[in-house]
Amino acid sequence: xxxxxxxxxxxxxxSKLMDIHGENSFKSKSYSSxxxxxxxxxxxLAQMSEAQFSRLRGIxxxxxxxxxxxxxxxELRALQELIQQTPSGVLEMMHIKGLGPKKINIIWKEMNxxxxxxxxxxxxxxxxxxxxxxxxxxxxxILESISFARGSKGQFLYxxxxxxxxxxxxxxxxxxxxxxxxxxxxxxxxxxxxxxxxWITTVPVEKLKAYLVTDDVEVLASPGETLSLRAADQLExxxxxxxxxxxxxxxxxxxxxxxxxxxxxxxxxKTEFESEEDIFxxxxxxxxxxxxxxxxxxxxxxxxxxFDNLVQTGSIKGLIHSHSNWSxxxxxxxxxxxxxxxxxxxxxVISDHSKAAYYANGLSEQRIRExxxxxxSLNKKIAPFRIFKSIECDILGDGSLDYDNATLSTFDLVxxxxxxxxxxxxxKAMMRLMGAITNPYTTILGHMTGRLLLKRKGYPVxxxxxxxxxxxxxxxxxxxxxxxxxxxxxxxxxYAMEKGLLLSINPDAHALEEFPYLKYGxxxxxKGGLTAARNLSxxxxxxxxxxxxxxxxxxxxxxxG
Length: 561
Description:
Elements: H1 4-20, H2 25-40, H3 50-54, H4 60-73, H5 77-84, H6 88-93, H7 101-110, H8 116-124, H9 135-152, E1 156-157, H10 158-175, E2 181-184, H11 185-188, E3 193-194, E4 196-201, H12 205-212, E5 217-221, E6 226-231, E7 235-241, H13 247-254, H14 258-264, H15 276-282, H16 297-302, E8 318-322, H17 333-343, E9 347-353, H18 365-382, E10 386-394, H19 405-408, E11 415-417, H20 426-437, E12 444-445, H21 463-472, E13 476-480, H22 493-498, E14 503-506, H23 518-527, H24 541-559
Parallel strand pairs: 4-7, 8-9, 9-10, 10-11, 11-12, 12-13, 13-14
Antiparallel strand pairs: 1-3, 2-4, 5-6, 6-7
């Protein structure tokens, strides 16, 4: 069944392309409005009749007919026609930071630039800055965005390739029963982005090639005992064929970073092992899981330390950071709570958007009071499960928060995040973040850098200074588990733990279907070595309640001098 997000994406793209082509602005805005409405609907459009969704505010009869067209044919004719009329380079410009549809229209229609290469050249020659509405800053942002996009080319989110990787693994195991076949490389190391999928197998290369190479699969290389393929003109698949005696050693080598492997090779090793565990045992080391084989420093730690207390998805007791239909979520608070009770969770932190996020139906002070009354009544109904009253409060441009302290004091806890004016230098970003951290009502700092993996780099921050300040002011840092965020970056988790900071794996869920995002946050948390004891969302209900009460006292004591 086609979901509402896919339909909304079609109308959003149609609106942007109409603006790029300079077409009817009224129609363009109606499609943009429809996309926003569709994305927030709790009921799938595919389960409604055209008469039903055409009556919805923000959709109407004209858009309703197009929704039916998409549901029946899988495409919008008007959109496909615009795509065919648009040069591929202009379509690529839509992913460049600092370029909206109106600016792309000027670049294409007025300056006759229709490729990324021509755009880059025009920026370097300062021709873009001279156009009205652009300027030198926009020009520089365009260059930075082009550079970032090139660095991200050929990369995929872990979640994007996960289903394909596991499905192909199962298919290979079924076809080559009795052979050893294992996923390795970046996927096994739980990297947040994946450039290629790798396998170790005892299946000979020629047999793999005969089975895998079809009209849709291109052979990139096949030297010796390796086979490199490209599937669907996108993802590289790399197979390492080896013999059973060498399987464990080859698996170990391909499941380790270059830095780790270079340091490990300084120690004596055999060529044949029964298993990876045997490799570590022979080296006098505790087993190092693949996801920790990044930095060379882990090798010394493993001589004294075991890694069996790391956070697991099953150890998470509460869903912290979730959005309901009070703001931009798809479900009611009660529906969310019922699903979490069914899954065995002990509590949920409801954190809808604050009033500055008007685009997400942020809560006014009056609506906050109404929501709190509603939550009180729900808590009586669904006890012992508990819903905590929270808010994802916007950090404003001057570092202040979106509500006054009197309003913030009415929440059980407050998550503070930056959602606007993301184009900042480090000084500006740090000023805003420090303003939130030092506020006595900030409990959790949300998605710290605002990054979107492979799309947006995120604003620059001084991680050490932020971690140190959060320790001092008893602020937890979120590991936002949305597969496109995974922010805070796992590379700073060890420093946070060294300083005694609490982190929290949070899904930032806007729908029931996003509750499983906890898995992706856990995968990167494990890479950073996070233990369940240092993960706030692993606290039991009683532990979480005690933590909030104790922390509020400490923070108010700091605030009062």
